[in-house]
Amino acid sequence: MSRTVIRGGLVITASDEMHADVLIEDGRIAALAATGTPAAEAWTAERVIGASGKYVIPGGVDAHTHMELPFGGTFASDTFETGTRAAAWGGTTTIVDFAVQSVGHSLREGLDAWHAKAEGNCAVDYGFHMIVSDVHDETLKEMDLLVEEGVTSFKQFMAYPGVFYSDDGQILRAMQRSADNGGLIMMHAENGIAIDVLVEQALARGETDPRFHGEVRKALLEAEATHRAIRLAQVAGAPLYVVHVSATEAVAELAKARDEGLPVFGETCPQYLFLSTDNLAEPGFEGAKYVCSTPLRPREHQAALWRGLRTNDLQVVSTDHCPFCFVGQKELGRGDFSKIPNGLPGVENRMDLLHQAVVDGHLTRRRWIEIACAAPARMFGMYPKKGTIAPGADADVVIYDPHAEQVMSAETHHMNVDYSAYEGKRVTGRVETVLSRGVPVITEREYTGHAGHGVFTPRSTCQYLT
User: Rounded to two decimals, what is the model's pTM?
Assistant: First the structure.
């Protein structure tokens, strides 16, 4: 039996803060005891980690990543190996990535392809959502089988006609199926049909710079799609999770639905909390670095997002990590913003940025852990195995130095991308040591993990519905 003791830290979970020692046996949390008590002092172990003056927090759960995603004629630049290693550096010990069903192919083919990409390559644990691009009778039957296998969430797109897009009838049918099988529909809520009209008109006017990406993908079209998704889910009697919420008006739609008692949930991402259309408008072609969908919004939208996180109208902060290098990938859209691959790097930055939000007074420490660890684990059927520090939980534990200062930069990050969306941003707080199932993957700011340690994690259904 392998034993580790973490001594003297402030243990923070979504519900509690306590100065406690943590005993780990065979990859799981065995016990917690108040620091300095006879019970804690009696523990012996092969590995003792001092955490005095540090936080001891659950490993982050990033429920929205896209490793090796094909998009816009290229592929996301992080592999499962590089992306999960970067996640570990940032204090995230579980990702849930998106397997893709291509039109004309089965869900099984898509899921098998993603298993092949990930298996043996991940530094931390992983699960999958399933992107459903082609709804028909066989697809619906496959959804039931995937739920039984622990792939319990399905993403649909109201955007990207001709690629991932589903019409309202396809969405309704998938929602009806998820109402029966316990799955959770995740929705990219933007009116893609209308957006394509605005893109065509903007390009015809010669409006080709990156900033126009944000101008054509209007906040009202996010709000309209969010409203429509909510009402379709209500008709189907199904729960709904809206991904990457970016706009004041979309938050209002979620809040209204939740006030009506509907099982509707929302996620936002660090880019919408910390970046804005000012970044999209950076001179030259620099704004291309910040092209993602939903797009960055004017800065005044941020207040509604922070408020939504405090009031629980938004439950989760994930990254939508989908990196493309500036040189050779983002540059595909020079002269035509619609050809810029959509996506930002962020899997390594999320926990630190949200700790900065604690420093800045936007969030409490417990809420930080809730939106980054516990809530995503509950939302996607992994709690309390993931997302908390409690007896029986996986020993996914981060020793976090809340006083260390760092400057975010592409020169020092570990994501496989040639720029940082937060270049030059100074933040307080930094990951020091990371355990994944009790195994050190980051040890005092050195990478001690390896590809293949991370394993596929089957999930139960959404725990907010039981």
Answer: 0.98
